[in-house]
Amino acid sequence: MSAITRWTLKWAHGEATVQSLGAMLGPVRFELGGGRSISPLHVAPWGEDARWPGLMRALRGEWPCLPFGTVHPPSGLPRDYDLLNSPDDWDHGYGSNHRWQLVDQTSHTLRLRIDYPKDGEIESLERVIKATPNAPILDVSLTVRVRGEVMLPVAHHPTFAVPLDGVEILGCPYRTIHSYPAAVEPGVSRILPDRTATSLTALPTATGSLDVTLLPLTAATEEIVQIAGCQPPFVLRYAARGADVLLDWHADELPDALLWISNGGRTNAPWCGKNFALGVEPANSFFDLGRVVVPPATHPLVDRSGLRFLAGKPRSLHYRLSAQPI
Of 50, 154, 195, 265, which has the fewest Cβ atoms less than 10 A away? Predict the structure, then answer.
């Protein structure tokens, strides 16, 4: 298989690379002034490795997921959850696992496009990444075209670096926090499944509460929680680097933020206990399970069924990634 193509934007306040596989954005470097900079997006420790299929070949940074979510339901779900059959085999959608084409590049903009299979609901995706000339800001849009009216779970998938000197989750104002309905990584994950919490500093485990606001954690684990009613921007503080990183989006479309805390808990290849990352995923979805699970009607997130798309009416979603010195 041929090597992955990458394109880079360079401007006075940073540098951003986008790859053809999944249109994944990363790495990104923001210049903060005074000789300081921050590279907030994660690049998987195996880099680019053709032995791994789909998005795993060169997992990194941020990318659009449509339809969002896994195609395999987890084991250990409560009995009152109904299972669905995913219509395809692509975790996070066809676009996450295939090559995009560069449509246009200017001094401050990259435009990419991918056409979906002709037998599917989605016709195409177009992604525009635009640097603000006078600031460390990236504005990103995703335009979706479909073949017929359809409701799809949707998420952006920013994955942030967790350096040894730490990152603090300052987060966002929110309504409540929900834990994953099953163990994310059986035998490893610590947060009790299918619970509700009021703070990221006190998530329930079998041995007491767990504070996940300062990463990396001391014990290996893999966790997913859904922050319901998250009001962006979502803020991460890299104190040792003297920077806050902000993620902003339209909460009326994507009302929640999924947190994926990968803290060395996956020991199988290619993870090998070496992956430390934080996913902050603006979403309209029931966790990453909207394609394979229907929660009971009593679940507080039962209405997180996705966004509606109409044939002949392209719909665009927008978000912003930026950094500022502290």
Answer: 50
Is residue 217 pLDDT above 90, yes or no?
Answer: yes
| Cβ 311 vs Cβ 187: under 8 Å | no
- Give Dmax over CA atoms of the chain in angstroms: 57
Alpha helices in 86-240 (DSSP H): 94-97
- DSSP code for 69: S
Both structure tokens of 326: 């502290």
CA–CA gap between residue 326 and residue 321 (Å, rounded): 16
Find the mean pLDDT for residues 276-292.
98
Return the CATH number of the domain spanning residue range 6-325: 2.70.98.10
Tell me the C-alpha to C-alpha distance, in Å, between residue 124 and each of 66, 283, 292. Answer: 10, 20, 23
Tokens of 189: 């994950």
C-alpha pair distances (Å), 238 with each of 53, 163, 166: 32, 9, 7
Burial class (CB in 10 A: 0-12, 13-18, 19+), 194: middle
In the chain, alpha helices (H): 94-97
Q: Which of 83, 94, 92 is closest to 123 using CA atoms?
A: 94
DSSP state of 320: E
1 has a pLDDT exceeding 80: no
Report the distance separating Cα 184 and Cα 196, nearest Å.
16
Separation between Cα atoms, residue 94 and residue 116, nearest integer Å: 7
Cβ pair 41, 60 in contact under 8 A: yes
The Cα–Cα gap between 318 and 156 comes to 10
Task: Give the pLDDT confidence of 13-60 residue by residue, as tens digits.
Answer: 999 999 999 999 999 999 999 999 999 999 999 999 999 999 999 999
Contact present, 319 and 282 (Cβ < 8 Å): yes
Q: Are 262 and 222 in contact (CB under 8 A)?
A: yes
